[in-house]
Protein backbone atom coordinates (compact mmCIF):
# COMPACT_ATOMS: atom_id res chain seq x y z
CA UNK A 1 0.00 0.00 0.00
CA UNK A 2 1.35 3.41 -0.94
CA UNK A 3 2.00 6.03 1.63
CA UNK A 4 -0.44 8.90 1.40
CA UNK A 5 0.85 12.40 1.95
CA UNK A 6 0.39 16.06 1.32
CA UNK A 7 1.72 17.18 -2.07
CA UNK A 8 2.59 20.67 -0.90
CA UNK A 9 5.21 19.52 1.58
CA UNK A 10 6.25 16.06 0.36
CA UNK A 11 8.87 14.12 2.32
CA UNK A 12 9.63 12.06 -0.80
CA UNK A 13 8.82 12.06 -4.50
CA UNK A 14 9.24 9.72 -7.47
CA UNK A 15 10.53 11.48 -10.59
CA UNK A 16 9.80 9.71 -13.86
CA UNK A 17 12.18 10.82 -16.63
CA UNK A 18 10.19 10.34 -19.83
CA UNK A 19 12.66 9.53 -22.65
CA UNK A 20 12.36 8.33 -26.26
CA UNK A 21 13.43 4.80 -25.43
CA UNK A 22 11.60 4.41 -22.12
CA UNK A 23 11.38 5.85 -18.63
CA UNK A 24 13.92 6.24 -15.86
CA UNK A 25 12.67 6.41 -12.25
CA UNK A 26 14.46 8.32 -9.49
CA UNK A 27 13.51 8.62 -5.84
CA UNK A 28 14.03 12.15 -4.46
CA UNK A 29 13.89 12.76 -0.72
CA UNK A 30 15.45 15.41 1.53
CA UNK A 31 17.56 16.90 -1.27
CA UNK A 32 19.02 13.58 -2.37
CA UNK A 33 18.45 11.53 -5.52
CA UNK A 34 18.60 7.77 -5.93
CA UNK A 35 18.31 5.95 -9.23
CA UNK A 36 15.83 3.08 -9.00
CA UNK A 37 15.27 1.46 -12.39
CA UNK A 38 14.74 1.96 -16.13
CA UNK A 39 11.80 0.52 -18.09
CA UNK A 40 11.76 0.36 -21.89
CA UNK A 41 8.59 1.20 -23.82
CA UNK A 42 8.94 -2.15 -25.60
CA UNK A 43 8.93 -4.28 -22.46
CA UNK A 44 5.93 -6.55 -21.95
CA UNK A 45 3.44 -5.43 -19.24
CA UNK A 46 5.01 -1.97 -19.11
CA UNK A 47 2.28 -0.50 -16.87
CA UNK A 48 2.46 -3.35 -14.37
CA UNK A 49 6.24 -3.14 -14.25
CA UNK A 50 6.26 0.64 -13.70
CA UNK A 51 3.52 0.41 -11.05
CA UNK A 52 5.58 -2.13 -9.12
CA UNK A 53 8.62 0.16 -9.26
CA UNK A 54 6.62 3.13 -8.01
CA UNK A 55 5.05 1.20 -5.15
CA UNK A 56 8.45 -0.16 -4.13
CA UNK A 57 9.79 3.43 -4.02
CA UNK A 58 7.36 4.26 -1.13
CA UNK A 59 6.98 7.95 -1.93
CA UNK A 60 4.13 10.42 -1.49
CA UNK A 61 3.86 11.94 -4.97
CA UNK A 62 4.96 11.44 -8.58
CA UNK A 63 6.48 13.94 -11.02
CA UNK A 64 6.88 13.39 -14.77
CA UNK A 65 9.80 15.17 -16.45
CA UNK A 66 9.77 15.08 -20.25
CA UNK A 67 13.34 14.42 -21.46
CA UNK A 68 12.31 13.25 -24.93
CA UNK A 69 13.22 14.83 -28.24
CA UNK A 70 9.73 15.98 -29.21
CA UNK A 71 9.34 19.20 -27.26
CA UNK A 72 8.15 22.36 -28.96
CA UNK A 73 9.02 25.92 -28.00
CA UNK A 74 8.24 29.34 -29.40
CA UNK A 75 8.94 32.86 -28.21
CA UNK A 76 6.29 35.49 -28.88
CA UNK A 77 5.48 38.99 -27.76
CA UNK A 78 1.97 39.54 -26.47
CA UNK A 79 0.18 42.81 -25.87
CA UNK A 80 -2.16 42.44 -22.90
CA UNK A 81 -4.43 45.49 -22.31
CA UNK A 82 -5.55 44.54 -18.80
CA UNK A 83 -4.75 41.82 -16.30
CA UNK A 84 -8.32 40.50 -16.65
CA UNK A 85 -7.67 39.62 -20.31
CA UNK A 86 -4.30 37.96 -19.67
CA UNK A 87 -5.48 34.35 -19.25
CA UNK A 88 -7.85 34.42 -22.23
CA UNK A 89 -5.32 36.10 -24.55
CA UNK A 90 -2.54 33.65 -23.66
CA UNK A 91 -4.91 30.71 -24.09
CA UNK A 92 -5.95 31.89 -27.57
CA UNK A 93 -2.36 32.50 -28.64
CA UNK A 94 -1.36 29.04 -27.42
CA UNK A 95 -4.19 27.49 -29.42
CA UNK A 96 -2.96 29.28 -32.54
CA UNK A 97 0.72 28.45 -31.93
CA UNK A 98 0.22 24.74 -31.13
CA UNK A 99 -3.18 23.62 -32.45
CA UNK A 100 -2.13 19.95 -32.62
CA UNK A 101 -0.65 19.66 -29.12
CA UNK A 102 -3.13 19.52 -26.23
CA UNK A 103 -0.46 19.80 -23.52
CA UNK A 104 0.80 23.38 -23.61
CA UNK A 105 1.63 26.32 -21.37
CA UNK A 106 3.31 29.72 -21.41
CA UNK A 107 5.70 31.57 -19.13
CA UNK A 108 6.59 35.25 -19.14
CA UNK A 109 10.25 36.09 -19.84
CA UNK A 110 12.33 39.03 -18.76
CA UNK A 111 12.87 41.77 -21.31
CA UNK A 112 16.33 41.38 -22.87
CA UNK A 113 18.47 44.38 -23.67
CA UNK A 114 17.30 46.08 -26.87
CA UNK A 115 14.46 43.66 -27.45
CA UNK A 116 11.18 45.13 -28.69
CA UNK A 117 12.66 48.61 -29.09
CA UNK A 118 10.77 50.96 -31.37
CA UNK A 119 11.52 54.10 -33.27
CA UNK A 120 11.63 57.06 -30.93
CA UNK A 121 9.33 58.96 -33.26
CA UNK A 122 6.64 56.35 -32.77
CA UNK A 123 4.04 57.79 -30.40
CA UNK A 124 2.69 54.38 -29.34
CA UNK A 125 4.56 52.84 -26.43
CA UNK A 126 5.35 49.15 -26.87
CA UNK A 127 3.66 47.50 -23.91
CA UNK A 128 3.97 43.96 -25.22
CA UNK A 129 5.90 41.40 -23.16
CA UNK A 130 7.95 38.38 -24.27
CA UNK A 131 6.54 34.92 -23.52
CA UNK A 132 7.93 31.44 -23.98
CA UNK A 133 5.35 29.00 -25.35
CA UNK A 134 5.92 25.29 -24.72
CA UNK A 135 4.00 22.20 -25.82
CA UNK A 136 4.33 18.45 -26.05
CA UNK A 137 2.19 15.83 -27.80
CA UNK A 138 -0.31 13.62 -26.04
CA UNK A 139 0.88 10.17 -27.07
CA UNK A 140 -0.03 6.62 -26.18
CA UNK A 141 3.22 6.33 -24.20
CA UNK A 142 2.17 9.27 -22.03
CA UNK A 143 -1.23 7.66 -21.47
CA UNK A 144 0.55 4.52 -20.30
CA UNK A 145 2.43 6.60 -17.73
CA UNK A 146 -0.81 8.14 -16.46
CA UNK A 147 -2.45 4.71 -16.14
CA UNK A 148 0.54 3.42 -14.18
CA UNK A 149 0.27 6.30 -11.73
CA UNK A 150 -3.49 5.75 -11.41
CA UNK A 151 -2.77 2.22 -10.20
CA UNK A 152 -1.02 3.68 -7.14
CA UNK A 153 -2.29 5.78 -4.25
CA UNK A 154 0.28 8.52 -4.81
CA UNK A 155 -0.53 12.15 -5.51
CA UNK A 156 0.33 13.43 -8.97
CA UNK A 157 2.60 16.44 -8.51
CA UNK A 158 2.71 17.53 -12.15
CA UNK A 159 4.12 17.21 -15.63
CA UNK A 160 6.98 19.44 -16.76
CA UNK A 161 9.63 19.79 -19.45
CA UNK A 162 13.14 19.08 -18.21
CA UNK A 163 14.92 21.98 -19.98
CA UNK A 164 12.55 24.59 -18.54
CA UNK A 165 12.60 23.14 -15.04
CA UNK A 166 16.42 22.89 -15.03
CA UNK A 167 17.06 26.40 -16.38
CA UNK A 168 17.20 27.79 -12.83
CA UNK A 169 19.72 25.08 -11.92
CA UNK A 170 22.15 26.42 -14.54
CA UNK A 171 22.01 29.89 -13.03
CA UNK A 172 22.85 28.61 -9.55
CA UNK A 173 25.58 26.34 -10.87
CA UNK A 174 27.20 29.17 -12.86
CA UNK A 175 27.16 31.43 -9.78
CA UNK A 176 28.74 28.75 -7.58
CA UNK A 177 31.50 28.14 -10.15
CA UNK A 178 32.17 31.87 -10.44
CA UNK A 179 32.54 32.07 -6.66
CA UNK A 180 34.87 29.10 -6.79
CA UNK A 181 36.99 30.90 -9.41
CA UNK A 182 36.72 34.09 -7.34
CA UNK A 183 35.59 35.92 -10.43
CA UNK A 184 32.40 37.94 -11.07
CA UNK A 185 29.62 36.03 -12.82
CA UNK A 186 29.22 38.38 -15.77
CA UNK A 187 28.55 35.84 -18.52
CA UNK A 188 25.02 36.12 -19.94
CA UNK A 189 25.04 32.70 -21.63
CA UNK A 190 25.47 29.30 -20.03
CA UNK A 191 25.57 25.91 -21.77
CA UNK A 192 25.11 22.72 -19.73
CA UNK A 193 26.03 19.44 -21.42
CA UNK A 194 25.41 16.03 -19.87
CA UNK A 195 24.83 12.43 -20.83
CA UNK A 196 21.46 11.02 -19.78
CA UNK A 197 20.87 7.36 -19.11
CA UNK A 198 19.19 6.07 -22.27
CA UNK A 199 18.34 9.60 -23.38
CA UNK A 200 21.38 10.69 -25.36
CA UNK A 201 23.32 13.93 -24.95
CA UNK A 202 21.22 16.74 -23.47
CA UNK A 203 22.31 20.35 -24.06
CA UNK A 204 20.56 23.23 -22.30
CA UNK A 205 21.37 26.85 -23.18
CA UNK A 206 20.12 29.68 -20.99
CA UNK A 207 20.50 33.42 -21.24
CA UNK A 208 20.28 35.17 -17.89
CA UNK A 209 18.65 32.04 -16.35
CA UNK A 210 15.96 31.83 -19.07
CA UNK A 211 15.80 28.99 -21.55
CA UNK A 212 17.15 29.95 -24.99
CA UNK A 213 17.85 26.62 -26.66
CA UNK A 214 17.83 22.90 -25.92
CA UNK A 215 18.96 19.90 -27.92
CA UNK A 216 18.99 16.13 -27.52
CA UNK A 217 21.30 14.18 -29.81
CA UNK A 218 22.16 10.49 -29.87
CA UNK A 219 25.69 10.06 -28.57
CA UNK A 220 27.10 6.70 -27.57
CA UNK A 221 28.08 6.35 -23.96
CA UNK A 222 31.84 6.58 -23.39
CA UNK A 223 33.93 3.49 -22.93
CA UNK A 224 37.00 3.23 -20.78
CA UNK A 225 40.11 3.78 -22.87
CA UNK A 226 38.15 5.52 -25.65
CA UNK A 227 37.58 8.89 -24.06
CA UNK A 228 38.59 10.75 -27.21
CA UNK A 229 35.69 9.25 -29.19
CA UNK A 230 33.02 10.54 -26.77
CA UNK A 231 34.82 13.88 -26.48
CA UNK A 232 34.89 14.32 -30.25
CA UNK A 233 31.16 13.59 -30.52
CA UNK A 234 30.40 16.08 -27.75
CA UNK A 235 32.68 18.71 -29.29
CA UNK A 236 30.95 18.33 -32.64
CA UNK A 237 27.49 18.73 -31.08
CA UNK A 238 28.68 21.72 -29.07
CA UNK A 239 29.96 23.45 -32.21
CA UNK A 240 26.57 22.89 -33.83
CA UNK A 241 24.89 24.46 -30.79
CA UNK A 242 27.22 27.46 -30.91
CA UNK A 243 26.33 28.00 -34.54
CA UNK A 244 22.66 28.23 -33.53
CA UNK A 245 23.33 30.81 -30.82
CA UNK A 246 24.06 33.60 -33.29
CA UNK A 247 20.42 33.36 -34.36
CA UNK A 248 19.38 34.06 -30.77
CA UNK A 249 21.47 37.21 -30.44
CA UNK A 250 24.66 35.70 -29.03
CA UNK A 251 27.81 37.84 -29.16
CA UNK A 252 31.27 36.89 -27.82
CA UNK A 253 31.15 40.08 -25.79
CA UNK A 254 28.20 38.72 -23.79
CA UNK A 255 30.30 36.09 -22.07
CA UNK A 256 29.80 32.32 -22.17
CA UNK A 257 29.91 29.55 -19.56
CA UNK A 258 30.35 25.98 -20.78
CA UNK A 259 29.73 23.32 -18.12
CA UNK A 260 30.39 19.67 -18.98
CA UNK A 261 29.05 17.13 -16.48
CA UNK A 262 30.29 13.58 -16.74
CA UNK A 263 33.13 11.25 -15.87
CA UNK A 264 36.19 13.44 -15.34
CA UNK A 265 38.28 11.08 -17.45
CA UNK A 266 36.13 11.87 -20.49
CA UNK A 267 35.04 15.45 -19.68
CA UNK A 268 38.51 16.92 -19.12
CA UNK A 269 39.54 16.00 -22.67
CA UNK A 270 37.01 18.48 -24.05
CA UNK A 271 38.89 21.47 -22.67
CA UNK A 272 41.43 21.39 -25.50
CA UNK A 273 38.78 20.87 -28.18
CA UNK A 274 36.83 24.10 -27.54
CA UNK A 275 38.17 27.17 -29.30
CA UNK A 276 35.41 29.67 -28.52
CA UNK A 277 36.18 32.10 -25.64
CA UNK A 278 34.37 30.77 -22.57
CA UNK A 279 34.56 29.83 -18.91
CA UNK A 280 35.02 26.08 -19.29
CA UNK A 281 34.28 23.73 -16.37
CA UNK A 282 34.29 19.94 -16.29
CA UNK A 283 32.52 18.42 -13.30
CA UNK A 284 31.49 14.99 -12.20
CA UNK A 285 27.83 14.59 -11.21
CA UNK A 286 28.88 14.33 -7.57
CA UNK A 287 30.88 17.59 -7.73
CA UNK A 288 27.94 19.38 -9.36
CA UNK A 289 25.63 17.97 -6.70
CA UNK A 290 27.82 19.32 -3.91
CA UNK A 291 27.71 22.80 -5.43
CA UNK A 292 23.90 22.59 -5.69
CA UNK A 293 23.37 21.05 -2.26
CA UNK A 294 22.16 17.77 -3.78
CA UNK A 295 23.34 14.35 -2.65
CA UNK A 296 23.60 11.68 -5.33
CA UNK A 297 23.86 7.97 -4.59
CA UNK A 298 26.43 5.69 -6.20
CA UNK A 299 23.58 3.99 -8.04
CA UNK A 300 23.28 7.13 -10.19
CA UNK A 301 26.72 6.45 -11.62
CA UNK A 302 29.64 8.81 -12.04
CA UNK A 303 28.78 9.92 -15.58
CA UNK A 304 25.02 10.37 -16.03
CA UNK A 305 23.35 13.73 -15.31
CA UNK A 306 19.69 12.73 -15.18
CA UNK A 307 19.83 12.13 -11.39
CA UNK A 308 20.94 15.75 -10.94
CA UNK A 309 17.97 17.06 -12.96
CA UNK A 310 15.57 14.73 -11.14
CA UNK A 311 16.74 15.92 -7.73
CA UNK A 312 16.55 19.60 -8.73
CA UNK A 313 12.97 19.39 -10.02
CA UNK A 314 11.85 16.81 -7.47
CA UNK A 315 12.50 19.07 -4.47
CA UNK A 316 10.46 21.98 -5.86
CA UNK A 317 7.25 23.04 -4.18
CA UNK A 318 5.84 24.02 -7.58
CA UNK A 319 6.95 23.55 -11.18
CA UNK A 320 8.13 26.59 -13.13
CA UNK A 321 5.91 25.70 -16.10
CA UNK A 322 3.49 22.82 -15.44
CA UNK A 323 1.73 21.47 -18.53
CA UNK A 324 -1.89 20.42 -18.26
CA UNK A 325 -4.34 18.30 -20.20
CA UNK A 326 -7.59 16.44 -19.61
CA UNK A 327 -5.68 13.26 -18.69
CA UNK A 328 -3.65 15.14 -16.11
CA UNK A 329 -6.71 16.90 -14.68
CA UNK A 330 -8.59 13.61 -14.33
CA UNK A 331 -5.88 12.15 -12.12
CA UNK A 332 -4.58 15.20 -10.29
CA UNK A 333 -7.89 16.95 -9.54
CA UNK A 334 -9.51 14.37 -7.20
CA UNK A 335 -6.20 13.58 -5.50
CA UNK A 336 -5.46 17.23 -4.85
CA UNK A 337 -8.93 17.64 -3.34
CA UNK A 338 -8.31 14.63 -1.12
CA UNK A 339 -4.95 16.07 -0.11
CA UNK A 340 -6.49 19.43 0.76
CA UNK A 341 -9.14 17.68 2.85
CA UNK A 342 -6.40 15.70 4.57
CA UNK A 343 -4.47 18.90 5.19
CA UNK A 344 -7.54 20.57 6.70
CA UNK A 345 -8.24 17.53 8.86
CA UNK A 346 -4.61 17.48 9.96
CA UNK A 347 -4.77 21.17 10.84
CA UNK A 348 -8.04 20.60 12.70
CA UNK A 349 -6.53 17.68 14.59
CA UNK A 350 -3.51 19.80 15.38
CA UNK A 351 -5.78 22.54 16.69
CA UNK A 352 -7.69 20.09 18.86
CA UNK A 353 -4.47 18.63 20.22
CA UNK A 354 -3.15 22.12 20.90
CA UNK A 355 -6.32 23.11 22.75
CA UNK A 356 -6.24 19.83 24.69
CA UNK A 357 -2.60 20.39 25.64
CA UNK A 358 -3.37 23.95 26.74
CA UNK A 359 -6.35 22.70 28.76
CA UNK A 360 -4.23 19.98 30.34
CA UNK A 361 -1.54 22.51 31.16
CA UNK A 362 -4.16 24.79 32.69
CA UNK A 363 -5.56 21.95 34.80
CA UNK A 364 -2.07 21.03 35.94
CA UNK A 365 -1.35 24.63 36.93
CA UNK A 366 -4.70 24.86 38.71
CA UNK A 367 -3.96 21.66 40.63
CA UNK A 368 -0.59 23.09 41.66
CA UNK A 369 -2.24 26.35 42.70
CA UNK A 370 -4.86 24.40 44.65
CA UNK A 371 -2.15 22.53 46.53
CA UNK A 372 -0.47 25.82 47.42
CA UNK A 373 -3.82 27.36 48.41
CA UNK A 374 -4.66 24.37 50.65
CA UNK A 375 -1.28 24.64 52.33
CA UNK A 376 -1.80 28.36 52.89
CA UNK A 377 -5.34 27.75 54.21
CA UNK A 378 -4.09 25.19 56.71
CA UNK A 379 -1.49 27.67 57.93
CA UNK A 380 -4.11 30.44 58.22
CA UNK A 381 -6.47 28.15 60.17
CA UNK A 382 -3.63 27.24 62.53
CA UNK A 383 -2.88 30.92 63.14
CA UNK A 384 -6.62 31.59 63.62
CA UNK A 385 -6.98 28.84 66.22
CA UNK A 386 -3.98 30.13 68.13
CA UNK A 387 -5.43 33.65 68.05
CA UNK A 388 -8.78 32.33 69.36
CA UNK A 389 -7.00 30.67 72.25
CA UNK A 390 -5.09 33.87 73.01
CA UNK A 391 -8.28 36.00 72.94
CA UNK A 392 -10.12 33.46 75.15
CA UNK A 393 -7.34 33.73 77.69
CA UNK A 394 -8.00 37.49 77.78
CA UNK A 395 -11.73 36.92 78.35
CA UNK A 396 -12.87 37.70 74.80
CA UNK A 397 -15.34 35.22 73.28
CA UNK A 398 -14.54 35.56 69.58
CA UNK A 399 -17.01 32.85 68.55
CA UNK A 400 -19.88 34.72 70.23
CA UNK A 401 -18.86 37.95 68.51
CA UNK A 402 -18.64 36.35 65.07
CA UNK A 403 -21.98 34.58 65.58
CA UNK A 404 -23.61 37.88 66.56
CA UNK A 405 -22.14 39.58 63.52
CA UNK A 406 -23.38 36.76 61.33
CA UNK A 407 -26.89 37.07 62.70
CA UNK A 408 -26.81 40.84 62.26
CA UNK A 409 -25.58 40.39 58.69
CA UNK A 410 -28.39 37.98 57.87
CA UNK A 411 -30.94 40.41 59.27
CA UNK A 412 -29.42 43.27 57.31
CA UNK A 413 -29.59 41.24 54.12
CA UNK A 414 -33.32 40.75 54.68
CA UNK A 415 -33.84 44.53 54.89
CA UNK A 416 -35.42 44.27 58.35
CA UNK A 417 -34.75 46.98 60.96
CA UNK A 418 -35.29 45.01 64.18
CA UNK A 419 -34.02 47.74 66.47
CA UNK A 420 -36.32 50.31 64.84
CA UNK A 421 -39.24 47.94 65.25
CA UNK A 422 -38.53 47.37 68.97
CA UNK A 423 -38.09 51.10 69.51
CA UNK A 424 -41.53 51.73 68.02
CA UNK A 425 -43.08 49.04 70.25
CA UNK A 426 -41.45 50.38 73.39
CA UNK A 427 -42.81 53.87 72.67
CA UNK A 428 -46.41 52.61 72.68
CA UNK A 429 -46.32 50.36 75.77
CA UNK A 430 -47.24 53.14 78.22
CA UNK A 431 -47.64 51.34 81.58
CA UNK A 432 -47.46 47.85 80.13
CA UNK A 433 -44.40 45.68 80.65
CA UNK A 434 -43.15 42.99 78.26
CA UNK A 435 -42.25 39.75 79.94
CA UNK A 436 -40.44 38.37 76.86
CA UNK A 437 -40.34 38.64 73.07
CA UNK A 438 -39.33 36.33 70.25
CA UNK A 439 -38.27 37.39 66.72
CA UNK A 440 -38.60 34.92 63.83
CA UNK A 441 -37.66 35.34 60.15
CA UNK A 442 -38.26 32.49 57.74
CA UNK A 443 -35.88 32.38 54.73
CA UNK A 444 -32.48 33.92 54.14
CA UNK A 445 -32.58 35.07 50.48
CA UNK A 446 -30.31 37.82 49.17
CA UNK A 447 -32.08 40.56 47.23
CA UNK A 448 -30.79 43.48 45.23
CA UNK A 449 -33.20 45.96 43.75
CA UNK A 450 -32.59 46.63 40.03
CA UNK A 451 -34.11 50.10 40.49
CA UNK A 452 -34.46 52.58 43.28
CA UNK A 453 -38.27 52.47 43.21
CA UNK A 454 -38.72 48.72 43.52
CA UNK A 455 -39.52 47.55 47.03
CA UNK A 456 -37.89 44.48 48.59
CA UNK A 457 -39.99 41.29 48.72
CA UNK A 458 -42.05 40.53 51.80
CA UNK A 459 -40.34 38.24 54.34
CA UNK A 460 -42.21 36.11 56.88
CA UNK A 461 -40.76 38.16 59.75
CA UNK A 462 -42.60 37.86 63.08
CA UNK A 463 -42.19 39.54 66.47
CA UNK A 464 -44.22 38.01 69.28
CA UNK A 465 -44.59 39.97 72.56
CA UNK A 466 -45.60 38.21 75.78
CA UNK A 467 -47.46 40.02 78.63
CA UNK A 468 -48.57 38.68 82.02
CA UNK A 469 -51.44 39.75 84.29
CA UNK A 470 -52.23 38.94 87.88
CA UNK A 471 -54.71 36.16 88.46
CA UNK A 472 -57.25 38.52 90.02
CA UNK A 473 -57.28 40.76 86.92
CA UNK A 474 -60.55 40.95 85.09
CA UNK A 475 -59.87 39.29 81.66
CA UNK A 476 -62.12 41.79 79.95
CA UNK A 477 -60.02 44.69 81.22
CA UNK A 478 -56.79 42.92 80.23
CA UNK A 479 -58.02 42.21 76.74
CA UNK A 480 -59.09 45.85 76.42
CA UNK A 481 -55.56 46.95 77.24
CA UNK A 482 -54.16 44.53 74.63
CA UNK A 483 -56.55 45.78 71.95
CA UNK A 484 -55.67 49.40 72.74
CA UNK A 485 -51.97 48.52 72.48
CA UNK A 486 -52.57 46.86 69.12
CA UNK A 487 -54.41 49.95 67.85
CA UNK A 488 -51.56 52.24 68.94
CA UNK A 489 -48.98 49.91 67.40
CA UNK A 490 -50.78 49.63 64.04
CA UNK A 491 -50.92 53.41 63.81
CA UNK A 492 -47.12 53.51 64.06
CA UNK A 493 -46.32 50.25 62.29
CA UNK A 494 -48.50 50.67 59.19
CA UNK A 495 -45.96 52.93 57.38
CA UNK A 496 -43.35 50.26 58.18
CA UNK A 497 -45.53 47.57 56.54
CA UNK A 498 -46.10 45.73 59.82
CA UNK A 499 -49.41 44.60 61.35
CA UNK A 500 -50.04 43.89 65.05
CA UNK A 501 -52.75 41.61 66.39
CA UNK A 502 -53.64 39.84 69.64
CA UNK A 503 -52.62 36.27 69.11
CA UNK A 504 -53.40 34.99 72.62
CA UNK A 505 -56.12 36.92 74.56
CA UNK A 506 -56.63 36.54 78.31
CA UNK A 507 -60.12 35.04 78.23
CA UNK A 508 -59.05 32.18 75.97
CA UNK A 509 -56.20 30.98 78.18
CA UNK A 510 -56.55 28.39 80.88
CA UNK A 511 -56.15 29.86 84.32
CA UNK A 512 -52.78 28.82 85.65
CA UNK A 513 -53.23 28.29 89.37
CA UNK A 514 -54.46 25.87 91.96
CA UNK A 515 -58.23 25.68 92.29
CA UNK A 516 -59.51 25.26 95.82
CA UNK A 517 -62.63 26.02 97.85
CA UNK A 518 -61.19 28.98 99.68
CA UNK A 519 -63.22 32.20 99.65
CA UNK A 520 -62.92 35.62 101.09
CA UNK A 521 -59.69 37.53 101.73
CA UNK A 522 -57.54 34.45 101.65
CA UNK A 523 -58.89 33.51 98.25
CA UNK A 524 -58.27 37.01 96.81
CA UNK A 525 -54.68 37.09 98.06
CA UNK A 526 -53.94 33.68 96.54
CA UNK A 527 -55.52 34.69 93.17
CA UNK A 528 -53.32 37.82 92.90
CA UNK A 529 -50.18 35.65 93.01
CA UNK A 530 -51.27 33.65 89.91
CA UNK A 531 -50.70 34.93 86.35
CA UNK A 532 -52.66 35.33 83.12
CA UNK A 533 -50.61 35.35 79.85
CA UNK A 534 -51.48 37.34 76.73
CA UNK A 535 -49.49 37.64 73.48
CA UNK A 536 -49.34 40.22 70.69
CA UNK A 537 -48.07 39.15 67.24
CA UNK A 538 -46.40 41.70 64.92
CA UNK A 539 -45.66 40.44 61.41
CA UNK A 540 -44.54 41.81 58.07
CA UNK A 541 -47.31 42.24 55.51
CA UNK A 542 -47.37 42.70 51.71
CA UNK A 543 -46.90 46.21 50.36
CA UNK A 544 -50.24 47.87 49.90
CA UNK A 545 -50.33 50.89 47.59
CA UNK A 546 -52.94 53.55 48.14
CA UNK A 547 -55.04 54.69 45.13
CA UNK A 548 -53.01 57.89 44.92
CA UNK A 549 -49.75 56.06 44.37
Explain the overall architecture.
By secondary structure, the chain is an alpha/beta fold. Among the domains are: 13-70 and 137-324, no CATH class; 416-540, Threonyl-tRNA Synthetase, Chain A, domain 2 (2-Layer Sandwich). Helix content is 39%, strand content 23%. The chain contains 13 helices and 18 strands. The protein has helices spanning 46-57, 86-97, 140-150, 162-181, 227-245, 264-267, 285-292, 306-314, 326-393, 398-413, 418-427, 475-493, 521-528, and strands spanning 13-18, 22-29, 32-40, 61-66, 72-78, 103-108, 129-136, 155-161, 189-196, 200-207, 210-217, 256-261, 279-283, 295-296, 436-442, 460-470, 498-504, 531-540. The strands form four sheets. Strands 8-4-1-2-3-14 form a six-stranded mixed β-sheet. A hairpin with a 3-residue loop joins strand 9 (189-196) and strand 10 (200-207). Helix 1 packs across helix 3. Mean pLDDT is 80; it is low at 1-8, 120-125, 445-453, 509-518 and 544-549.
Concise summary:
Helix content is 39%, strand content 23%. The longest helix has 68 residues.
Q: Could you give the topology of this structure?
A:
Layout (H helix, E strand, L loop, with lengths): L12 E6 L3 E8 L2 E9 L5 H12 L3 E6 L5 E7 L7 H12 L5 E6 L20 E8 L3 H11 L4 E7 H20 L7 E8 L3 E8 L2 E8 L9 H19 L10 E6 L2 H4 L11 E5 L1 H8 L2 E2 L9 H9 L11 H68 L4 H16 L4 H10 L8 E7 L17 E11 L4 H19 L4 E7 L16 H8 L2 E10 L9
Parallel strand pairs: 1-4, 3-14, 4-8, 9-12, 12-13
Antiparallel strand pairs: 1-2, 2-3, 5-7, 6-7, 9-10, 10-11, 15-16, 16-18, 17-18
Helix pairs in contact: 1-3
Amino acid sequence: MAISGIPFFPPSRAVIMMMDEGVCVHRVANGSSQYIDTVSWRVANFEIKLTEILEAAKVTSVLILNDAVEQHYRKERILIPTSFDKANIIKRRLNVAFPSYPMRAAIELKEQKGAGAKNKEDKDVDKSKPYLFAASPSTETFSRLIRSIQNTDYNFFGYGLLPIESASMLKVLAQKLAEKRKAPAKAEWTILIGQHRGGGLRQIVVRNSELALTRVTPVEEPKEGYSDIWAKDVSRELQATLSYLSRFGYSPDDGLNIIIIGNKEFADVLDGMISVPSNFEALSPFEAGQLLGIKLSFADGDHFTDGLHAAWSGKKLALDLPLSSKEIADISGPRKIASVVMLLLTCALGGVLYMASMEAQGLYENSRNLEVANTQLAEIERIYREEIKRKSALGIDVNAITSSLDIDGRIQRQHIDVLGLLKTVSGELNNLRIDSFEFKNEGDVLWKSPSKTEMPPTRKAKLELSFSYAGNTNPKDGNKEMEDLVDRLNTKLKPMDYLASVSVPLQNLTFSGAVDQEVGLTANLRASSERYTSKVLIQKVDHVKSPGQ
